[in-house]
Amino acid sequence: MKNKYSIFSLIKNAFSYHENWEKAWKDPEPKKEYDAIIVGGGGHGLATAYYLAKKHNMRNIAVIEKGWIGGGNTGRNTTIIRSNYLWDASAGLYDHALKIWEGLSQELNYNVMFSQRGVMNLAHNLQDVRDLKRRTHANRLNGIDAVYLNTEEVKKFCPIINTSQDIRYPVLGGTLQRRAGTARHDAVAWGYARGADEMGVDIIQNCEVKGIKRNGDTVEGIETTKGLIKTKKIGVVAAGHSSVIANMAGLKLPLESKPLQALVSEPVKPIIDTVVMSNAVHAYVSQSDKGELVIGAGTDDYISYSQKGSHDIVEGTLNAILELYPIFSRMRMLRQWGGIVDICPDASPIISKTSIKGLYFNCGWGTGGFKATPGSGDLFAHTIANDEPHKLNAAFNLNRFVSGNLVDEHGAAAVAH
Amino acid sequence: MFLINCPFCGEREQSEFKAGGEAHIERPKQPTELSDDEWAEFLFMRKNIKGIQFERWNHTHGCRKWFNIARDTSNDQIKAVYKMGEKPPVKL
Fold first, then answer.
1. Residue A11 in contact with residue A179, Cβ under 8 Å?
2. Using a CB-CB distance cutoff of 8 angstroms, which residues of chain B are in contact with residue A404?
3. How many Å lie between the alpha carbon of A410 and the closest alpha carbon of chain B?
4. Between vectors from CA A100 to CA A95 and to CA A105, what angle results, nearest 5°?
5. CATH homologous superfamily for B3-27+34-83?
6. How many whole angstroms separate alpha carbon A389 and alpha carbon A106?
7. If you count residue pairs, one on A and one on B, with CB atoms under 8 Å apart, how many are there?
8. A337 touches chain B (CB under 8 A)
């Protein structure tokens, strides 16, 4: 049993100069065999392992990670959490996650710094206005909080926005989801890792998958840089590298992996206390607790695994940011980076069984996976443990690309893709 | 961010071009005969290779012509440029 984090443990450890905190998770060597193996130690993978152990009592399991946990897209995104999606299936999926977020710090005994500061989506043309109003109605029918704001209300909610009607893309209105917000991305990975580790899950870092061992149409184990590990169930949560793993198993997925960029500014005093996203001009901005502006850009249109994006994408995003927030014109950007996102043709994720028995995929989250981390882990764990999808992820199967029953969230999700 | 050597215009910045995705996916000759699985394969399934990939590009802000390139997607290095209709290079 791990020591509980609390004000008392903080005081107690202060007396020993914080040098005696116990390790949040072990660093074990892989066993010869597990009941299930999760490939990918990001937020989604660690959450999957956590819920497999907690809800389905599968304790003899491992998470294997090529690099270090939370070092991929979990540590690279702009930490926006919301559930205001248009279609019923998506609304169910993302609101399931949002509900878990609301109690996550308590459940994990780990402060994930979930902050329901609201997310506002701006409309810049008549079609945006119609789309956002339609989405607001759809959200409310699904029990998701959403309001439509006119230009004055947008200005009142976030006073630094330039609402002049003379700019290139004037603000005509927006929507607001007050329950939405941000969380501390690293803490999510670390909190789930600590929780999973406590229940006996082996978290194995610096261990790369080299092949999937099969006997006919059934998985038998995985070849890794630390040798062969036997298992009957493999859950792949490899984000941008999902197709690479699928290839090893002889599968093709409907995914394209593309660079998505983000950047942060120098830290400044509190200036923006919400998250503002803008479809048409493709710019998202929020402020971290440290004071940096966290800015999200768009994807490049070519496939790449290089974790580097194009300069013109960043330039376009900053142009939009400066037009909407002239107050930021003299701020300096500190860091810029890219992550590789796996995008589905319908911009919805895949949480699914495959044609190979014992092989499961959780992928295709594209540009917006972070918000779904707890829900994705919960539903993927259910799918792996029962060999059947939960009703909330039944629509997100691989077969939808054959049946044509797509969950088409492109542009409808309140986010540009 | 990289440069692309357009076979018609010469070397230009990548931002002048539009990526057209995986190359050499042939349009079905008998669309009415295709099963749902075959349609899914043609429309949606992609190799999405990490390594050398053959892909189509269009010089949208230049000559507006289509052509193929072989590019290493792990570091964005272009290995070969060849015209539409040509077979991909064997040696790279």
1. no
2. 36
3. 15
4. 145
5. Folate-binding superfamily (3.30.2270.10)
6. 27
7. 72
8. no
Q: Could you give the 3-state DSSP secondary structure of residue A133?
A: helix
Q: Is A405 on the interface with B (CB under 8 A)?
A: no
CA-based Rg of chain A, rounded to a whole angstrom? 21
ipTM: 0.95
Determine contact: B55 vs chain A, CB below 8 A.
yes
Per-domain residue ranges for chain B? 3-27+34-83
CB A297, CB A314: distance < 8 Å: yes
pLDDT tens for chain A, 417 residues: list them.
678 999 999 999 999 999 999 999 999 999 999 999 999 999 999 999 999 999 999 999 999 999 999 999 999 999 999 999 999 999 999 999 999 999 999 999 999 999 999 999 999 999 999 999 999 999 999 999 999 999 999 999 999 999 999 999 999 999 999 999 999 999 999 999 999 999 999 999 999 999 999 999 999 999 999 999 999 999 999 999 999 999 999 999 999 999 999 999 999 999 999 999 997 888 899 999 999 999 999 899 999 999 889 999 999 999 999 999 999 999 999 999 999 999 999 999 999 999 999 999 999 999 999 999 999 999 999 999 999 999 999 999 999 999 999 999 886 666 654
Q: Which of B19, B46, B55 sits opposite A252 (nearest CB)?
A: B46
